[in-house]
Specification:
By secondary structure, the protein is an alpha+beta fold. Helix content is about 60%, strand content about 15%. The N and C termini lie far apart (about 95 Å). This is histidine kinase.
């Protein structure tokens, strides 16, 4: 009896090693791994159900019959599936594996209790994951569920398998090996998936850091516009930073720069050769091509087998493309695709700086020109450093902050239409505050109180956000304990009233007086945002529209002003 138990234990352990190794290989196979490690909408839940159900079925095979029954590793797969995928995956995997166990041994004296036990193990693991979330995704919980589930399995065999004497002999032989190996297997399986998650997070963190570093290195070039010189410098930087066979940048008709292999026929200054690039220029959608035929380069000896083409835009207009090329030796994958798309978004923002500089010379309003020229590089670099600090520990938060920064930059740099709604201005305020909260944590908090009917009120762009920025920079952050900025907006039929209040360090009467003196402020290099807002309100709405500033040192500051809905002085 002891020899049989030992032999069975060794056999189960051998099969456990093969099963875990097979799962590891499948989860690391490109698209399969990305599917299993992504979020789980219904389609992916179905895939997960089939995956764990299939592995549970495989756990039935490769073992010699024991008293007309089967030793197996089903529990390992269904418990892991339930913990990883939740109730529906646990139920589905249990139904697949339990149903298979019943069908391969219809009439067998243990088929019904074994199938029932498998179903209950999957449901229990899934419900536990549904109640407690990702906290149960650890080896201790998996091991405990394996022990409990297989113990329940043995109990069902004793209760329902007939004749009872044969059930006792069977349980006496298989109980210890099956409880031990299935429990250890579930623990291993869970840790395998967690390890793949950690590796994906590290990879995404490196990707975000790489994008930010490239954007930081190229900002000085693309701000001057998309030309041969700026494209060449940008392509050189990307080629050094990203492991691809070649990097190319085009405008709408010609290749502006090409770095890497294929430079013998993808030549800067010549017309675009590939049909795939033409498709991106036509419809504005990024493409990932996986064959030479899809890339459609007419040159017979073109070495490229993979191509990623993403559009570069100014506003809604497509002005060119960024392209990554791969060869057999250096293939491209989805990480390269995401990197290219992220760079394209940042590059498009940088390219818009060229239009901003042109607009700054052409716009009729000096106040808009000054605002567009007052983008604070320190705020940008501090924001990038803050985002970089989140990349390793909280990559999802880093991606959110990149979007906030992109939104902030776009709105700051594209104010040519003059008037926007209160709601659009507050979106800019919230994008700015999200970045500052990431930098300063709990030291910066805010409240928005917007009265009914105020959301669509037309106001000049960037009249609230600079005041909020001033409150954070000069009121809240110098305070050791931080503070709260409150934006209150109310309106009646003819007038919109805006109040920005902070409970920060406050100002002296002398400092408040300087805020009303633009020349003195300009000489001191202080209060740029408030100075611009005061001047713009006076220019657009006349001297009757003035900003009121009240402040007490050590208690805080309130800035208020009113904007009429229709005013003869208002100019778009």
């Amino acid at each position: 009896m002891d020899v049989s138990i030992t032999h069975l234990l060794i056999t189960l352990i051998e099969h456990l090693g093969l099963t875990v190794a097979a799962a590891f290989l499948i989860l690391n196979m490109g698209a399969a791994g990305k599917t299993f490690l992504g979020k789980h909408p219904w389609v992916e839940k179905a895939v997960l159900t089939c995956f764990f159900g299939l592995f549970a079925i495989l756990g039935n095979y490769g073992f010699d019959p024991v008293h007309d029954a089967f030793a197996n590793l089903r529990a390992m797969a269904v418990v892991t599936g339930g913990l990883f995928g939740g109730p529906w995956v646990g139920l589905g995997a249990g139904v697949i594996a339990g149903g298979h166990r019943f069908l391969i041994d219809i009439g067998g004296f243990t088929s019904a209790p074994c199938a029932t036990a498998t179903l209950l193990e999957g449901v229990a693991a899934g419900l536990l994951a549904g109640w407690y979330g990702s906290r149960v995704m650890n080896w201790k919980v998996a091991f405990g569920l394996g022990v409990a589930g297989e113990s329940m399995h043995m109990g069902l065999v004793l209760l329902f398998a007939k004749p009872f004497s044969e059930a006792v002999d069977l349980v006496r032989l298989i109980a210890v090996p099956m409880i031990f190996v299935n429990s250890v297997g579930a623990a291993f399986f869970v840790e395998l998936i967690k390890g793949l998650f950690r590796e994906r997070e590290r990879r995404e963190s490196r990707q975000v850091q790489q994008i930010l570093e490239i954007a930081n290195l190229t900002v000085g070039y693309l701000r001057a516009g998309l030309g041969a010189g700026s494209a060449k410098k940008t392509a050189e930087i990307i080629f050094r930073q990203v492991d691809v066979a070649a990097v190319a940048i085009t405008d709408t008709t010609h290749v502006l720069a090409h770095m890497g292999v294929g430079a013998d026929h993808h030549i800067a200054g010549e017309p675009i050769r590939t049909a795939a690039t033409g498709m991106v220029l036509d419809d504005g959608l990024p493409l990932f091509r996986h064959t030479k035929r899809e890339i459609a380069c007419p040159h017979h000896g073109c070495p490229f087998h993979h191509g990623i083409i993403v559009p570069l835009k100014k506003g809604e207009s497509i002005v060119g493309t960024l392209k990554f090329y791969g060869t057999r030796e250096k293939p491209l994958d989805k990480v390269h695709f995401q990197t290219a798309r992220g760079l394209a978004v940042l590059f498009s923002t940088q390219l818009e700086l060229e239009d901003i500089q042109i607009q700054a010379r052409m716009l009729a309003y000096a106040e808009i020109r000054r605002l567009q020229a007052q983008i604070n590089p320190h705020f940008l670099f501090n924001s990038l450093n803050t985002i970089a600090s989140f990349c390793r520990t909280r990559p999802d938060r880093a991606r959110e902050l990149i979007l906030d920064l992109s939104s902030y930059m776009r709105r700051n740099l594209d104010q040519s239409k003059g008037y926007i709604t209160v709601q659009e201005e507050l979106e800019q305020v919230e994008a700015y505050l999200a970045i500052e909260q990431a930098r300063f944590g709990d030291r910066v908090s805010y409240r928005l109180d917007v009265g009914e009917g105020c959301d669509n009120w037309p106001i000049p762009a960037l009249v609230i956000q600079p005041v909020v920025e001033n409150a954070v920079k000069h009121g809240i952050t110098p305070n050791e304990k931080g503070g709260t900025v409150t934006v209150s907006i109310g309106c009646n039929a003819t007038l919109l009233t805006v109040r920005v209040t902070d409970d920060g360090v406050g100002m002296s009467e002398e400092t408040v007086g300087r805020l009303y003196n633009p020349e003195e402020l300009a000489a001191a290099g202080e209060g740029i945002g408030v100075r611009n807002t005061i001047q713009r309100l006076r220019r657009i709405y006349g001297p009757s529209c003035r900003m009121v500033i009240e402040s007490t040192q050590g208690q805080g500051t309130e800035v208020s002003f009113s904007i009429p809905r229709n005013h003869p002085s208002a100019r778009p």
